[in-house]
Write a structure and sequence with these properties.
about 200 residues
């Protein structure tokens, strides 16, 4: 695959994740879905930095369809940056092993919590989070991040990895000239859906 095909894959995955982010789902489910797409993307395009690109696409998609919210950007980018650090540096060549997939699913959520809190409380000083204080952070950790970490470690990280492997095999079957058109069409339809919102 060339760079254009890689980018179209990332664009389609980021847009699809962004579509789920536009649906009113609990935060722990959105985080779990995010891990699914991060594993799927990394399985298809195993290059450091690609997870961050997917995260940025999600953020732009959400901003386009639903205005800008720093909390949403911080949450998505916290996941994308954490995931990229673990798959590119800490686990590097063996991130695809089942035990590592499990661990990455858990610790990505936990470390993204620290990035999120740092951004919304210290950098941007988001009023709702400042007013909520430590109680709000603890509640968010227990009722959003902890369930997301468990679901991601046990379920969605493995699903993303599995589906990524299957899609990789499917890419070999579908004629190469059709693939960019499929990714681009899916992306256009998803952005049209965002504009309707």
């Amino acid at each position: 695959m060339n760079r254009t095909e890689y980018f179209l894959i990332l664009l389609a995955l980021g847009s699809l994740w962004g579509f789920f982010e536009m649906i009113s789902l609990p935060v722990f489910i959105l985080c779990s879905i995010g891990l699914l797409f991060l594993f799927l993307g990394r399985k298809l395009v195993d290059i450091p930095g690609t997870s961050i690109i997917i995260g940025l696409i999600v953020c732009f998609y959400k901003t386009y369809g639903n205005n800008f919210f720093i909390c949403q950007w911080a949450g998505v980018m916290g996941l994308a940056i954490s995931f990229d650090l673990y798959t590119s540096f800490l686990f590097k060549s063996n991130w695809q092993k089942t035990i590592n997939t499990f661990l990455i699913g858990i610790i990505t959520n936990v470390s993204s919590l620290f990035i999120f809190v740092f951004v919304v409380v210290i950098v941007f000083r988001e009023p709702n989070w400042i007013a909520g204080g430590l109680d709000r952070i603890i509640n968010y950790s227990l009722y959003s991040i902890l369930p997301a970490a468990i679901i991601s470690g046990l379920l969605t990280s493995h699903i993303g990895s599995y589906v990524g492997s299957k899609l990789k095999g499917l890419n070999a079957v579908i004629p190469k000239k059709l693939l960019p058109g499929i990714y681009l069409t899916a992306t256009i339809l998803l952005w049209i859906a965002a504009s309707i919102n």
